[in-house]
C-alpha cells in the first residue's frame, strides 16, 4: 500500500490513477539517484563532532543567563 502524497496538481494519492502514481514515484527516484551518498560511519562521526563543538553555545544544555531570559517573570502578583 502506498503512503498518501500529493501530486504536482495537488491531488492526493488516492485520487490518482496507478499510472500517475508510478510516474510520481519514478520522478522521485530520479531525483534521489542524483543525491551523493556517503557512508554512515563517516557522516555519523561528523555529526557527533559538530554537536560536541556546538554544545557550549546550546542554551538547552548550558542554560540561559537570568538577565537574558525572556521568559523570566518580571514581577510578582500580590493578592490582598
Brief account:
By secondary structure, the protein is mainly α. The chain has helices at residues 18-33, 40-54, 59-62. The radius of gyration is 25 Å and the shape is flat.
Q: Keywords, please?
A:
mainly alpha, flat, 3 helices
Topology:
Elements: H1 18-33, H2 40-54, H3 59-62
Report what the structure shows.
This protein is an all-alpha fold. It is built from 3 helices and no strands. The longest helix has 16 residues, at 18-33. The protein is flat, with a radius of gyration of 25 Å. The termini are far apart.
Mean model confidence by pLDDT: 85
Name the poorly predicted regions: none
Specify the biggest β-sheet: none
Structural class by helix and strand composition: mainly alpha
Amino acid at each position: 500500500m502506498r503512503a498518501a502524497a500529493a501530486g504536482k496538481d495537488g491531488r492526493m494519492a488516492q485520487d490518482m490513477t496507478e499510472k500517475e502514481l508510478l510516474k510520481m514515484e519514478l520522478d522521485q527516484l530520479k531525483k534521489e539517484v542524483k543525491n551523493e551518498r556517503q557512508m554512515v560511519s563517516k557522516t555519523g562521526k561528523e555529526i557527533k563532532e559538530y554537536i560536541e563543538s556546538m554544545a557550549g553555545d546550546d542554551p538547552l544544555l548550558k542554560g540561559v543567563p537570568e538577565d537574558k531570559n525572556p521568559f523570566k517573570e518580571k514581577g510578582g502578583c500580590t493578592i490582598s
